[in-house]
Amino acid sequence: MHTAITNLKKLNHFGWSGEQLRNVLVGALTPVIGLLIFLMIWHVGAQRIDTSLGAFPGPVQVWEQAANLMDEHRSERARATAFYERQEVRNAERLAQDPNAEVRWREFTGRPTFIDQVFTSLWTVLVGFGLATLIAVPLGILIGLSQNLYRAINPMIQIFKPVSPLAWLPLVTLVVSATYVTSDPAFSRSFVVSVITVTLCSLWPTLINTAVGVTGVSKDLQNVSRVLRLGWFRHVKTIVLPSAIPMIFTGLRLSLGIAWMVLIAAEMLAQNPGLGKFVWDEFQNGSSNSLGRICVAVLVIGFVGFLLDRLMLLIQGWINWDKSAVVR
């Protein structure tokens, strides 16, 4: 360790001290060491577990299945490209024979790949989270500014906040089936069920944190607003939101994490295309590769959830009024 730090000092072009170099080295190596320990425990533990679908996959087997899923995605995209190229050739020949001939185009209807289902889940969760935000932030501001409104709505918040998505899903399915009746739907029924379930389960953290942030506005700022005789909308824009924005984003981060977790269960039960349905289909398939593919999905779900949280932090840093705040 000491020799490595000495060598780094020789290569140091930034003028860092030995202590700073040591901190950088330790900070870079510690996550790697933790990851290696986790992989070792996983590898050793997997060898001791036998399931009804075979041996539990270790890191090597999961990596192989991840590569297989990517190969399947590339193969499916190649099939789609070849399908459209054949259509172009047929249409060109038809037009060459008869310039007034009708050109026919068909959509490629291949099986959705794992990558396709990842993006489907992302689209579904962002729509559900967006609806939850549009409901929770304005309502949170209103109940934060009105004690009477807060007392009226708080009992419903406390009742519905802990309800599981597994309890909401049957009710949402029945309501959507009864009301979403059209011969040419813009969205599939399973998509609408998943979005509404995500919305119902994820709006509460944002609603509560927004209300808390609004009620936490300092008395001095409220007095300034009264002295300046600011209107309601201007008071909210210039006084309330700058003070409440950190709490609002705390709620948004919690809501987005809950939305991503809820979505997987909703997709499983609603059979909406996405990662949840992928996991359920692989479990039902019961092949020798199913466990490895499910493990790939679990890791991707966790990694995507991490990226979504980082994205919310970046957005908070861009629009936060308090530029001195350090985002962690």
Q: Class of the largest domain, according to the CATH hierarchy? A: Mainly Alpha
Query: What is the helix/strand order?
Result: HHEEHHHHHHHHH
Q: What is the approximate shape?
A: globular
Q: What is the CATH architecture annotation of the largest domain?
A: Orthogonal Bundle
Strand content: under 5%
Whole-number mean pLDDT? 83
Could you tell me the radius of gyration in angstroms? 27 Å
Question: What are the defining features of this structure?
Answer:
two-stranded antiparallel sheet, disordered C terminus, MetI-like fold, 328 residues, 2 strands, mainly alpha, 2 domains, single chain
Task: Detail the topology: elements first, then pairings.
Layout: H1 2-10, H2 18-46, E1 50-51, E2 54-55, H3 59-97, H4 114-145, H5 147-160, H6 165-179, H7 189-215, H8 219-228, H9 232-270, H10 275-285, H11 290-319
Antiparallel strand pairs: 1-2
Q: Could you explain how this protein is built, in words?
A:
The chain has eleven helices and two strands, in the order H-H-E-E-H-H-H-H-H-H-H-H-H. The chain folds into two domains: 2-48, no CATH class; 114-178 and 186-319, MetI-like (MetI-like fold). It starts with a helix and ends in a 9-residue tail after the last helix. Strand 1 and strand 2 form a beta hairpin. It is globular and about 80 Å long. It has 328 residues and is mostly helical. It has helices at 2-10, 18-46, 59-97, 114-145, 147-160, 165-179, 189-215, 219-228, 232-270, 275-285, 290-319, and strands at 50-51, 54-55. It has a two-stranded antiparallel sheet. Helices cover 78% and strands 1% of the residues.
